[in-house]
Amino acid sequence: MSGLTVLTEAATGHYSLTASIAALAHAKNVYALTAESRFGTAQEAARQTTALADAWGVSGNVHILSSREDPRLHEVDLVTNLGFVRPINRALLGRLKPGVSIALMWEPWEFRESDLDLAACRELNIPVLGTQESHPALQLFDYVGLVAMKLLFELEIEVFRSRLIVVGQGVLAEKTLAVLTRNGAHATVLSGRPPETLSSGKAQDAFRQADAAVIVEHHLKESLIGPDGQITAFQLKDLNPGLSIAHICGAVDASQIETAQIPLAPRPIAPAGYMSVLTNYVGPKPLIDLHAAGLKVGSGLARERQAGHAGAAAEERVLRTLDLAVGFGSAVGGKR
Predict the structure, then answer these.
(1) Could you report the per-residue pLDDT of 116-125, keeping only the tens digit for each?
(2) Stated pTM of the model
(3) Residue 320, burial from CB neighbour count under 10 angstroms (0-12, 13-18, 19+)
(4) Other CB atoms closer than 10 Å to residue 16's CB: what's the count?
(5) What CATH number has the domain spanning 5-136+284-326?
(6) What is the model's pLDDT at position 204?
């Protein structure tokens, strides 16, 4: 990343690592934007980020920003889509220089319009690429099953020989099922879609016998458990008074689950489309691997911009040469 200026976040916990990772890769300047959050104050996020940069000997390259209107934003070559940088909207894009690129620390199927104004990026000819989390060098989705195991252990569910239900569809549910099964669980999947809605006969039979359910549904926006859900928490309690719930992602009503006195982990939980806990819940390595890979993808885009290639042309050139990169294609969620 030599000579590049990067915009990322200054954050707490494992997320304080990203700015220093970019600096260790010889970024010219790393601007780390911070804000208040439920994870800590802006002051604490800045303190943790700068302390790590100092410990790693890169404090001269890491600079804390407290405003999305800081004039130094116009120097940025590469933007990451991490928490305090979002939303990457038209207002933020307007403060960046014309030659900027955007690296996403996820795959395009995880896209949310509220986080990234992709139409504005296309209009402004700003290249945007995601990071292939399923790449053999990363295998990040496998960690989701380990996250589920950690949540189950917190609920005092042993996993081994436990009867578990995985609620969800797609790669997250598939990987969670695989990990739980490899560790001796008797696990089954309910997709949450006909004919496997949570009120179906098959689902009710499964709930009656289960020790716990793992909610890992990233796409479905309709409520799974709650007053307007496929099933209410009170119905679950009637079916199985001993059931526990581990929540990774999916639309459920935590307040009703609590009222029904069903054990739930973690607390608080995230709304639909977001994850209550990420892969770094089990340790920093998945986050380090993902963010380092995302920075590599972004570095490739930035170099193509410096070589005079903009927008789709820069994306295409990186996609041809770097298999860690993944594009949107002609529609959100597709691969170019």
Answers:
(1) 999 999 999 9
(2) 0.92
(3) exposed
(4) 24
(5) 3.40.50.720
(6) 97
